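Bumping my old thread because nobody answered last time. Still need a sequence for this structure:
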């Protein structure tokens, strides 16, 4: 895509969803950090189901330490890899209390020092909790960026850096959520719903699916 096409790409996504919101539920920067860490290889819906009652009581690293690893495991046992995740959340809570006064640092390098926190998690926290123009490249964004031609790359980091470079400034803050939601609900992995995509004419994907499966099947029967 050229610069004008990229601007139009984002403009249409913004027009369709002026205030995009992430689907993980949280109370404050700390609970967002925990939720994103727990969401690795899990669905947002599954994480929300477990964290809703948890965050009704636990909203600080200090409270998480008081709950303890065993107590946390019991609360999140419906989430995949809950044993490892519980261990990391408790270790991260201890580090936040000891090194940062119980506050979530607004710094990617410091965030990435926390157990269970990688670049993607750090970027989500910086973007969603602190309003920084970061793009956390998950499987959805990686697919959308490569498939559409918006920012092709072989690794999440390569795609992230390209997206931050080509995304027009007015759309940088919301780009993370727009691209995730677009990949989750329209530009799906197995069957992209191109027939209802607002940017289909700008997309470089050659194998576009321009009709819903039922309609295509119906026509083939004629």
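Sorry it took so long. Here it is:
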């Amino acid at each position: 895509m050229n610069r004008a096409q990229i601007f139009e790409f984002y403009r249409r996504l913004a027009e369709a969803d002026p205030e995009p919101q992430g689907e993980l539920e949280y109370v404050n920067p700390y609970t967002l950090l925990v939720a994103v860490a727990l969401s690795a290889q899990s669905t947002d819906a599954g994480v929300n189901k477990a964290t809703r009652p948890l965050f009704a009581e636990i909203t600080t690293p200090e409270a998480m330490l008081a709950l303890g690893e065993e107590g946390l495991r019991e609360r999140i046992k419906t989430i995949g890899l809950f044993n490892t995740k519980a261990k990391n959340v408790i270790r991260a809570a201890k580090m936040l209390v000891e090194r940062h006064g119980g506050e979530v640092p607004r710094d990617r390098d410091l965030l990435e020092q926390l157990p269970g926190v990688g670049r993607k998690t750090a970027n989500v926290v910086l973007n969603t909790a602190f309003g920084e123009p970061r793009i956390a490249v998950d499987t959805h964004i990686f697919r959308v960026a490569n498939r559409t031609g918006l920012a092709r790359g072989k690794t999440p980091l390569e795609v992230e850096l390209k997206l931050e470079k080509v995304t027009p400034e007015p759309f940088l803050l919301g780009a993370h959520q727009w691209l995730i939601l677009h990949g989750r609900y329209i530009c799906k992995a197995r069957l992209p719903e191109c027939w209802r995509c607002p940017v289909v004419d700008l997309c470089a994907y050659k194998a576009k699916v321009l009709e819903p499966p039922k309609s295509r099947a119906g026509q083939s029967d004629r």
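The CA atoms of residues 26 and 32 lie 5 Å apart. Let me know if any region looks off to you.
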